[in-house]
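Before the break, one more example. Copy the sequence into your notebook; we will annotate it together after we see the structure.
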Amino acid sequence: MNGCMISLLVAFGLAVPAADPPAAAPVGVPPIKIVALNRKEPVLYDKDIEPIFVNKCAFCHSGNIKEGKLDMATHETLMKGGKKGPSIIPGKADESILYKLSAKVMRPAMPPKSEDPLTPEELALIKLWIDQGAKAPSAARIRPKIVLTPPPSSVHPVRALAFSPDKGTLAIARGNQVLLHDAASAVFLRAFTDPTLKTADGKPVVAAHIGLVESMAISPDGRYLATGSFQELILWDFRTGRIVRKVAPFTDRVVALAFSPDGKLLVAAGGAPTEDGEVRLLEVATGKPLFDLKSPHSDTVFGVAFSADGKMLATCGADKFVKTWEIPSGKALKSFEGHTHHVLDVSWKADGKTLASAGADGVIKIWNFEAGEQARTLAGHTKQVSRVAFVGTTPNIATCSGDLTVRVWNADNGGAQRTLTGFPDYLHALAVTADGTLLAAAGEDGAVRIYVGTAAQPTKVIPVPQ
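Here is what the structure looks like once it is written out:
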């Protein structure tokens, strides 16, 4: 039984400690010293407190895991308390069991020894928030009902690209369309369409989704294609274009998708902007959800990536964090902080020891996973970096940016290897084959450019149909 479970079973009445009463300080665990906060403004749950709980507490107390029957996923569930009643007494931090366990003045300490403790500053914020009444989020999070309409014909950004495993086909997510082209000749092959699509007033829509296609991934065996749009995911038979299943609803846009290396799992991510991130792991064969990470990030999750052995998942989001998780348990592993703006994409090196992340701050961060720290920063793009991908088993990464360029770097030493220019508009999408022989990039203008080998100019351009 892990430390989190023991702590909360005792704290919320599911088990009885064998020796000292709960009021006793944990043996061998010094209390956390409270720091004085020079703060005049009120402590806000959604701005100040929720990010702490997400990073330090959510794994053991949200989603499918609610140890001690304490769910810390939202303010409402937190205030309901656990098995033995309230965990927080508004206005009385010193009498609140959650605060006393977190401060390590009451047994069992929380988080347990195996996890990172709260910092003195974090604990001081929690204490002040409780003493101020443990108020709910500052604004009601009521999401308006959105009626989707197809995008105008003039709106045709390419948000995602993917090469088939055999390198023969390039899948393009353009506007609300999913299109397949021959990767060598650029010849159009077919479009994926949902025959049930209709507008709110009943008019048929010939497209893959009503709204923009935000994300896409092809399974390693080339059997399936997954696409994400507003509040839904569709799994397609890649060979026939037939819909295998739909997965819905999601909270908001599904902006990131990835298959596990063995093709058995599919992760979908997104979330409501400024409110919460969403990460859902599905079994491909059945569509069964294996877990739904509650509040994995405090804002939209923009990128997901499996390690080459399939045992770890990396996520990144608008909260400026890169986070890693154990698969299939969903246990939080390590978090990486260093970007100064949204983190838009993440990729694993084949050895599982290095991560690369792309930021809206215009830089790429290389992270040493084992050490849990930043290895280097790659600077060169002048606007936000929208995609990053390791190239096969090499140390090379490819990136694209709003500065209208694609760059290839060596992540091991930070060296810039090549820069591709001449793109007319913001770049959203990038795909590169495992052997690095084919690279495709596209963005707001809708045209897709394919590069072969080390060519400085595109070998083929797939324009927007007139």
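Residues 158-462 form a domain with the Methylamine Dehydrogenase; Chain H fold (CATH 2.130.10.10). Confidence is low (pLDDT under 50) at residues 1-28. Try to locate both features in your own notes.
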